[in-house]
Design brief:
The chain is mostly helical and 278 residues long. The chain has one domain (11-276): Rhodopsin 7-helix transmembrane proteins (Rhopdopsin 7-helix transmembrane proteins, Up-down Bundle). The chain is built from ten helices and two strands; from the N terminus they run ααααββαααααα. It has helices spanning 11-47, 52-55, 58-75, 77-82, 109-152, 160-205, 207-214, 218-239, 241-251, 269-276, and strands at residues 83-92, 95-104. Strands 1-2 form a two-stranded antiparallel ribbon. The longest helix has 46 residues, at 160-205. The radius of gyration is 25 Å and the shape is elongated. The N and C termini lie far apart (76 Å).
Length: 278
């Protein structure tokens, strides 16, 4: 019987919280690595456009996806070792009661290593890499667009109207691609950068900062991570025709013949870029 004001923290609930924490951490890290793999894949496909049929093969794509799911459990090993189920004995009206809760061990170097790995390797380093690659991709999108503009400038005056229409389409593709890259980058930084900074400060300043600051923003950062995942899906669907086509093919394989793969000439800005970068 639980009396009013009496607390109950059973072992099963603590075990569930511990499992949920590790499970969410692994798959959130996997989503970060998938986002990073996609950015690197774009970079390789555009930077080495003449060799992308060799470098960007289906086998290597599968290896990149597999690595994005294999590495997170390895990187999260310090978290597995640091956080555990702890007990506390409290006096209730019915007598002494053991409360089970999830907490970390604050002694030893493993506690510091955990926050350094979490902050630097899982959060801050991907933020830096994604920022550099995204800015480079945006620059290449506009360089490719300018290259197409110069090529079309040599076309005779009799086809000026058609050339203008094609250039407008190319400009729209470049703008759409740029907006998508900026939006993905902004959402990623807004979600992961605060966690990385707070994790780094927790490793440097110790338990007081972790309990006083990091815990206060934990639920907010979790909500941002969920929001980021939901918005990214909508963003890709709204701005990438090829993503929509692929999603339809995956969801309705029985009707795959109704949605043939989009031709290269009507693909998104990134695919157009691969065929137009000199």
């Amino acid at each position: 019987m639980i009396l009013p004001g009496q607390r109950e923290m059973p072992y099963k609930w603590a075990a569930y919280l511990l499992f949920h924490m590790h499970f969410a951490q692994i798959f959130h890290t996997a989503s970060i690595f998938l986002t990073l793999s996609l950015a690197i894949w774009r970079y390789v496909a555009i930077k080495y456009s003449d060799k992308n049929h060799i470098l960007c093969t289906e086998k290597r794509c599968s290896a990149a996806i597999l690595s994005s799911f294999v590495l997170p459990p390895i990187l999260c090993v310090p978290t597995f070792l640091v956080f555990d189920i702890h007990t506390a004995v409290v006096l209730e009206p019915s007598g002494p009661m053991i409360l089970y809760h999830v907490d970390s061990d604050y002694e030893g170097q493993l506690y510091q290593i955990n926050f350094w790995v979490h902050a630097v390797v899982i959060k801050l380093l991907p933020c830096c890499i994604l920022t550099v690659i995204s800015l480079w991709l945006i620059r290449e999108v506009y360089n490719a667009n300018e290259h197409q503009r110069k090529i079309r400038g040599y076309i005779s005056c009799s086809t000026n109207n058609k050339t203008g229409k094609r250039q407008n389409k190319a400009d729209k593709r470049a703008n759409r691609t740029t907006k998508m890259l900026v939006a993905v980058l902004f959402l990623f930084l807004a979600t992961e950068l605060p966690q990385g900074i707070l994790g780094l400060l927790s490793g440097l300043l110790g338990r007081c900062f972790f309990k006083g600051c990091y815990d206060l923003f934990g639920e907010l950062m979790d909500a941002l991570a969920l929001l980021n995942g939901a918005i990214n899906f909508i963003l890709y669907c709204s701005m990438s025709r090829q993503f929509r086509m692929t999603f339809r093919q995956l969801m309705w394989r029985a009707h795959i013949h109704k949605w043939p793969p989009p031709p290269v000439s009507h693909s998104d800005g990134l695919n157009t870029l691969k065929t137009s970068v000199p």
